[in-house]
Amino acid sequence: MINYRLSSYTIFIKLEKASEKYMLIHGYTGAIDVASKQIVKYLKENGSFINLQSDGLNDDTLKLLISRGYITTKTLREEREYVKKLANLMHRKDKSLFKNFMFLISYDCNFRCPYCYENEISGEGHQWTKRKFTKELVDKAFYAMEQIEPRAELRSRQSILYGGEPLLKENKEIVEYIVSRAQKFGMTFMAITNGYDLDHYEDLLSPEKINTLQITIDGFKEEHDNRRIHYLTGRSFDKIVKNIGIALKKDIAVAIRYNTDKNNISDIKKILNYFDELGYSKFEKFAFKSALLKDYSPDANNKSAVLNYLNREEFNRINYKQLEFNGNKYGCQDFGIYNKLSKAIKEKRKIYLNSTFCAAQSGSYIFDPYGNIYGCWSLVGNPQNVIGKYSDKIQWTPELSRWHARNINGSENCSVCKYALLCSGGCLHLSITRNKDINSNYCDGYSNTFKYAANKAYEECVMPAMQ
Predict the structure, then answer these.
(1) Can you count the helices (H) and strands (E) in the chain?
(2) What is the DSSP string of 74-89?
(3) What pLDDT was estimated at residue 179?
């Protein structure tokens, strides 16, 4: 007789807007379904041994639960071994596919934001941060790209401009050269920018050149100006907002990152209304997303932080229950859970799973103006994090294999977690920052955030189809 049991990777999410229903999600098949309260009750009560001949569930329901993975013949040990093998296969696939490239134009910045993690880099000295790419070094970086990935079809078609502040007005000439060289590679650019000097780059803003921008706003005018401080004028809000309008008229994508804590969360409605008044919200390529501003340093709970950070669980509860203001919807920092779930629901397919959190674990290469290559943009500027050096040839460091070897199997906690292939092990930068260990896990409240995102996906993707 075949023994069936409730899979140890079945996730039950109580749906707030459907009192008699749950969302079922499976951690390694990627299945996502809505189930009745009765089905969930049966599964929980009979989890260790499910009799297919019982009167608890009809044959069709049992067959569906088995096919989706919620009921299995595998033992707990066999499931965990299966997940480990699957994780390694996924990681191997990622390392063999796309490579992503980024230019860290300089470490210099025209802002003096009190919470910026790159403030520590400025300790290297003023002249150190001022150094930027030369044309010769740009050519060597493009040569390095070809060495890293000779197959053009496996090089990402969009590279990233990063800093410091990449789009400083004094960087215009070298950025122009980089964009020109990239066009021969069939590449376009995204820029992570504060937007202050963006007006100097108007001729480079186009679908064929710099076609995507992420610009940070930290509140409405007064609150923003107290936090996003220009080193000369002190103020930045008005100029950034004006430049956003310039960019949108160039038919490029502009994503506003709203750094959110409890000091400025009340400004969200005001700034969304302001963007409405300016007509920005009408642009198809305009997006607004909130991101938690939180102190991730190891002693964050034992020191006086620069800003009064909001607890993650409270933050997500507020954002997911107040996501709509005056008809405007905005995204919330949620580890990409909502996008994963909503896409699976809309396309009627299983959830995309992965064993690595980001490309830094498989194929991300960041070139800086000192000839260094980094894998993670949150760890640039520190020699300990250099994965390689580029010049006439590439010299890799042991750090490369350390990052590229890490998937969920590297963490004992992740390897036995039902969420592992959904959260992909979490951010390794935060694992290193908080725990000083690349093989540690850093869940960051994932399971709580998952509940909010799943409910939002149900409310916005399932409920409308039922009406």
Answers:
(1) 17, 18
(2) --HHHHHHHHHHHHHH
(3) 98
Question: Does residue 327 surpass a pLDDT of 90?
Answer: no
- Report pTM: 0.90
Q: Mean pLDDT across the stretch 197-211? A: 98
What would the DSSP string read from start to end of 187-226?
A: -EEEEEE--TTGGGGGGGBSTTSEEEEEEEE-SSHHHHHH
Over the stretch 409-438, which tens digit does the pLDDT of each residue have?
A: 988 888 889 999 999 998 888 888 877 788
Decide if 282 contacts 241 (C-beta within 8 A): no
- Residue type for position 447: S
What is the Cα–Cα distance from 72 to 29, expressed in whole angstroms? 11
Question: Which tokens go with 44?
Answer: 């929980």
pLDDT confidence of residue 23: 97
Order of strands, sheet of 158-162, starting from the edge strand that comes earlier in the sequence: 331-332, 286-292, 253-260, 210-217, 188-193, 158-162, 100-104, 364-367, 372-374, 386-390, 394-396
Task: Identify which of 349, 416, 364, 343 has the alpha carbon closest to the alpha carbon of residue 87.
Answer: 416
- Which residues are within 8 A (CB) of 152 and not within 5 positions of it... i.e. 6 or more apart? 185, 186
Rg, C-alpha atoms of the chain? 24
Distance of alpha carbon 283 from alpha carbon 247, whole angstroms: 11
How far, in Å, CA of 231 to CA of 64, rounded?
61
Burial per residue of 359-387, b for 16 or more beta-carbon CB atoms within 10 angstroms, e otherwise: bbbbbbbbbbbebbbbbbbbbbbeeebbb
CA distance 2 to 4: 6
Where does 361-427 have alpha helices with state H?
A: 398-404, 412-415, 420-423
Residue 382 has which token pair? 């520190």
Cis amide linkage into residue 336, ω under 30° from 0? no
Q: How far apart are CA 103 and CA 357, in angstroms?
A: 21
Q: What is the pLDDT of residues 83-136, one digit of tens each?
A: 999 999 999 999 999 899 999 999 999 999 887 766 666 555 567 788 999 999
